[in-house]
Each structure stands twice: as structure tokens, then as C-alpha cells.
Design brief:
It contains ten helices and twelve strands. With about 325 residues, it is of the alpha/beta class. The strands form three sheets. Strands 4-5-8-9-10-11-12 form a seven-stranded mixed sheet. Strands 3-7-6 form a three-stranded mixed sheet, with no helix packed on it. It has a two-stranded antiparallel sheet with strand order 1-2.
Amino acid sequence: MIMDLYDFKKPENTGQKIEVQPQINKINVKSILNKHKKRDSWFLSDYTLNPYYGCSVNCLYCYIRGSHYGGNITHKTSAKANAPDILVKQLKKRAKNKEYGLIALATSSEAYPQIEEELKLTRSILQIINRFKFPVSILTKSTLVLRDMDILKKINENAILPPDLKPKLKGGAIISFSFSTPDEKLARIFEPNAPTPKERLETMKKFKDEGFKVGVCYMPVLPFLSDSDKQIEKMVVLAKNYGADSILTAGLTLFGEETNDCKTVYYKIIEKNFPEILEKTKRLFGDNFYPTSKYQKDLAERANKICKKYEIKNRF
């Protein structure tokens, strides 16, 4: 059952303003750990786990807007309140059968939304993952991940890796940070609630200095805004200078065909801030959720070439 997001308190007298106090939106789930049919070739994960529904980071290009979460995802962040209890049962069974594999945390929502600072749901989940010695991969925009470095160190040291991943990974934890642009002004437009690109890079460097495998996910790059050779090269150089072991690059996805979906919201932002590229952006996507295959192939080739130039991997 979903709790009300806001609790309205009646004022004591008519001259007093109504106070609106945010409440944590909580739901119960039947399952929390999802098993891939086969390992993800990009992120090396065998499982996915999302402690939250929705996302308070509210990136204006986010594909979640085209899903059942709807338009205003900022106010629809929900914590899976019973996730720790469910996870204990699921990991206990997997560990008993020695089905160890990398858990990707999180893939469809931010693992460190604003309410995580109070709720500590992700932290509880990491403690359980450490208890059962599973490896983990975190992809985030948040600097709050630093709070959990103590647990992540234990996972990094103690996790049981699948035999074929041992040569590729330094330890049992991968910490990656997501970017759509290295440009601070552009990031403020499209990622209004996220830490700045520099803050994310500085956080990544702290994990690198502590012996973690770290990476940059330059995705989605924004067509005609952050996908030029110059912008890609800038991101690659920054990633390498701040200690990234790898940088993954991928294009933008615009799901949905209704009001306030991903494509509608994105086009409105482009029209307001960069009207000169609106029509060619629309032509690039047409009636599809993805840019043309030619564009995607060209983007991958250019990104790979730049990665080779600076001797940084384009895969984990």
C-alpha cells in the first residue's frame, strides 16, 4: 500500500499558514532481486536491484518519464520498505546454491535519492549484500555514496566473484558515476537536482584512492549538445584525470508518446533553451525512441577512437 507523500497539518488559527511536511512514500514488494537471463555485457551484472521507485534527481532526459512512473517523477519517489527482509530470503537461497554474481544497484532509479539520507534503505541493502558476500556495481550521480564507503570496502574485499570475472575486476565493488555532459551550465539545465559534474568526479576520485574499480558512464550523451568530438574528448580526459578505469558512452533514449513523457519534456527543454537544434533533433528520432542506427554507430566509433587515443577502456 502506498502512503501519502504529503501530510497536511491543519493550522491552529486562520492567520497561520498551512505547513506541508514531506513524508516518505513507502511500498511493499514481493521481490527485490532480478536475475538476468545472461550477464549484461556492458556492466557485467548478473542481477539488478532497485531500492526505490522513481527518482528525485529528476533529470529532464530520463527514460522513466516514458514508463508507468509518469511525468513528474520527482514527487513519486517510493521506497521499497520491505526490501531488506525480501533480499535476505532471496540472497540466502542464491548463496546456498552458490549462484554468486554481480548485483547492479540501481538500474532504473537512483540508489541515493534525497530520502536515502534519512531512510538509509540502500545502506541496509548493502549490509545484506556484504553479509552474503555478493559483489556489487553502483551507478549513481550522488555524492551520498561516500557515506557507505565503509560497507563497500568490506564488499570489495570479501565478495565472492564468479570465476570468469576474477581476471577483470580488482575486487567485489565497482563504483561508477553517470554524466550526460561535462559542462556545468548544461548539466544545470538537464540535471537540476544532481551534484555538479565536478562534484561527481571528485567523489569518484576518492573511491579510486581507496582502491576501488571506478568508472564513468557518459550516457546519455545529448545530441548536438554533448556528442561532439570536442565534448567526448573533454569527458574522456576528465574521466582519466580523476582515475576512471573505464568510460562507457551511449546515446539518448526518448521513451513515450503521451503528454509529459520523456520525448515531450525533452523537446520542450530544447525548444526553450536551444531552439536552433529542435528540428534536427526531432528528425534524428522521428517516430522512434532511439536515434538512427547510423548516428549510434558513428557515436560509438568516435567514442572508441578517443578512448584509444587516451588509453582508457571503453568497457568494464
